[in-house]
Amino acid sequence: MKIQTILNEVPIQDVDHEGDFNKSSSFRHARDRRIVSNPAYITKVREKFGKVKQNINILFVNTPQGNRHTEVGEVSKDWIKDELGENTLNKINNMNTGNAITIIFTNNKGDQRVSMTPWILAHRMMHVFARETPGGSSDVTKSYRAAADNILRYTSEYIMPYYFGYNKKFPDSYSGMTRSQGRHGFFTDDSQRKSQREKQLFFKYLFQEIGTFRSARDNKLRDWFEVINELGAQYLITGKIKFNEAPKCIGPKNNRRCAPDDRLMKDQADEAIQSMGDYFELKMEKMLDIAVGRIFVM
Predict the structure, then answer these.
(1) pLDDT per residue over 103-158, tens digit each?
(2) How high is the pLDDT of residue 151?
(3) Across residues 184-201, what is the average pLDDT?
(4) CA within 13 Å, CB half, 244
(5) What are residue 16's DSSP bridge partners?
(6) What do you get for the CA distance between the two ends of the chain, in Å?
């Protein structure tokens, strides 16, 4: 099954499907299968991604082979042949992959209770850009980490001091923020793990206040690392990043952290927020440019 439109002026260059979308396979939910195979949905996706300049190919795969692969990252055509089969490779070969970012969606497992809206497509694209490839880190992943590192550096140097003073240390890299993930993380001391988790939560609560995307407005950011994915989705759908000013207080009602009345530090925090938004837009543009000509499996 192949769905095309004449809207060639928008970035979605091609959309195709592999597998029987009337049956449960790698796409387990009937609603998702109906959505992604609906021509009206394809038209909506084309419209929603109309703000970016790079061409994008999308292939929805609903097959037993696809069920074995989730959030893989960048892959080669040989990998597609070996892991997803000849039929999927043929669909990819029928696309112009040389001048487009090509994303293969094998499922919606990561968001089983969330419909596969254009925003979810964009969010999950960011997840796949973040993944290490089967052969190691790709240039796209490195670009993703550089964008995240810049957000963390601005938060550490200019925004966190507004609420805690200059004696509070904050990881200024993506790897630094992930070291305490899980029970057997980088830190072995419980107090260090607790301190690291407090910083991760500060990051999450901060962006629930300054972020203008829906999950921030609704206070439903799943965790700190989703900030980067939601910012990327915002850029893919709207073509820009927009932040609110630094709030007076952040955190849940039972554990609020409020800033002192310091106009200089408030101005510094607001300037940092604007700067990191501008910089993230530039990094997204670079990331997407690097991704052109590459194939990713989500």
Answers:
(1) 999 988 764 457 889 999 999 999 999 987 655 568 999 999 999 999 998 998 88
(2) 92
(3) 62
(4) 14
(5) 2, 59
(6) 20
116 vs 3, higher pLDDT: 116
**Are the beta carbons of 56 and 103 closer than 8 angstroms?**
yes
Bridge-partner residues for 17, per DSSP?
A: 60
Please tell me the distance from the alpha carbon of residue 51 to that of residue 195, in angstroms, as a whole number.
40
| 60 shares its domain with 107 | yes
Residue with tokens 């990051």: 203
Q: Which two tokens stand for residue 168?
A: 């509070």
In this structure, the answer to whether residues 196 and 283 fall within a common structural domain is yes
Same domain, 148 and 131: no
Backbone conformation region of residue 3, classed left if phi is above 0, alpha if psi is from -120 to 50, else beta: beta
Q: Are residues 23 and 109 in the same domain?
A: yes
Report pLDDT for 131.
86
Please tell me whether residues 211 and 83 are part of one structural domain: no
DSSP annotation string for 6-18 = S-TTSSEEEEEEE
Average pLDDT score over the chain:
87
Contact between 103 and 128 under an 8 Å Cβ cutoff? The reply is yes
Residue 214 shares a structural domain with residue 123: no
Enclosing domain of residue 179 = 141-289
116 and 152 belong to one structural domain: no
Residue linked to tokens 């949905």: 41
- Cα-Cα-Cα-Cα torsion 174, 175, 180, 186, nearest 10 degrees, comes to -170
Compute the distance between CA of residue 83 and CA of residue 27 in angstroms, rounded to an integer.
17
pLDDT at residue 92, rounded to an integer: 97
As a whole number of angstroms, the distance between CA 61 and CA 16 comes to 9
Structural domains counted in the chain: 2
